[in-house]
Amino acid sequence: MKFICLTLLFVSGITDSRSEQYEVVGPADPVxxxxxxxxxLPCSVKPSISVVDMRVEWFRLDLKDSVxxxxxHEDRNTEQIQYRGRTKLILQELQTGNASLKLSTVRVxxxxxxxxFIQSKSWSDDVTVDVRVExxxxxxxxxxxxxxxxxGLHLQCESEGWYPEPDLEWLDSEGVSLSxxxxxxxxxxxxxxxKHTIIVYHSGxxxxxxxxxxxMLETLINTTNNRFISWRTSVILxxxxxVLVVIAGILIAVFALKNRAHIxxxxxxxxxxxxxxxxxxxxxxxxxxxxxxxxxxxxxxxxxxxxxxxxRSIxxxxxxxxxxxxxxxxxQKIILPKAVNVTLDADTAHPRxxxxxxxxxxxxxxxxxxxxxxxNRFDDYLGVLGKDGFSSESFYFEVQVKDQTKWGLGVARExxxxxxxxxxxxxxxxxxxxxxxxxxxxxxSSDVSLSLRVEPQRVGVFVDYEKGLVSFYDVKSMSLIYSxxxxxxxxxxxxxxxxxxxxxxxxxxxxxxx
Length: 514
Prior knowledge:
By secondary structure, this protein is of the alpha+beta class. Helix content is 24%, strand content 35%. The protein has helices at residues 2-19, 226-331, and strands at 23-25, 31-34, 39-41, 44-46, 55-60, 68-71, 74-75, 87-89, 101-103, 112-119, 124-134, 141-147, 153-162, 167-171, 177-178, 182-188, 191-200, 205-211, 216-222, 353-355, 361-364, 381-385, 394-400, 407-413, 430-436, 439-443, 447-450, 458-464, 469-474, 479-484, 493-501, 510-513. It has a seven-stranded antiparallel β-sheet, with no helix packed on it. The protein has a six-stranded mixed β-sheet with strand order 2-11-10-5-6-7, with no helix packed on it. Strand 18 and strand 19 form a beta hairpin. It is flat and about 120 Å long.
């Protein structure tokens, strides 16, 4: 009997070690797609193993809308909105571990980072696929805006319906790039339109080219056409005629002005004499004003000295105020109460969480533990509650989050839902702060982004049951992280900690601090 048990344990160990060797792989480079066409998002298990009996889910972290879900041997896409009827798994390929997704009729809004998540009873893994979308617009249209006075031909090229923003360039018949006079770019909803203007002074073929990474459209215009040449000639002749008329007018005006200038000089001489007499009077007034300015200068110097004295006085007063402000801030430092004794309840922990024997630590393992699935146990979010609840006065506890990159913590109502995809917000009976994707946030009436100067190593949770207050603090700096105010509690509140949604590659535990 002992030999049989040892044999079964040995075989089980081999199976577990093998399951840990599988990984989900995808492309290292972005996948490029064209709007309106179909694209395949690669995803497979290495080494090859059938995923027919596993859960295969495609989703985007920036969207609540599901992309595609395969579970229990069938597609379950009733909650699709943006991707309804446009996604498909190749069921025959699931036998070989190929879970690639076919996305039909690609849209510009489909651009983003997709996660392929594969989960069996003994292991799970995921890979991210970066999808870039390109939309080819309409062929460029060249219009003629006429000639300028120097004979330059004004050309305008316009094209619309591109994504991302395309490059537009002018080329001559030799393929040499020409510089644009003006450039305009507009974005309408999810597409770009471009418009460039150029002035051409020579005849020949002019090309307008619009291009993206792998797409290009081009239009040309031939300025050697007789219509353009005759038009340019008429413009040049008109310009020459205008110049001749202007020169003749200038000569006539100069002759008339010369005669008028002689008369004006006579009048000017009389005016100068009169002005000389006025200057003498003005000189006397200036001398008097100079004396007055000397007196004013002495007064200004005296006032400047007074200002310097006042400036020094203000600096001294400022230093005094700063010192008083520092003393006030020192006296107003946050004083937190003594932490209560919190022990984690292993009967509420997700099957992939391990709670230490003393109930003070919880960590993630990449396997399902053999536990009963009761109504009190989390089955989707990696969460666990404290054993004791609180329904009056206030309480405080601290959680060490050092080196853990994906977590959430706070308090939860006794009747809060623990099954399925829960939302850690007051509407679902949770008052929490969390760290996810290197960002901190609180799920109040909406998702509140938190800007923290340093990463907290230990977070304190303070609850005033009577006042409806839940506050979170950085214990080291004694600074407030976030507060839920004006809440209404009518049942017991339990301490809550969690390690994210479904999986967590970081095995660092969360620790309840005494």
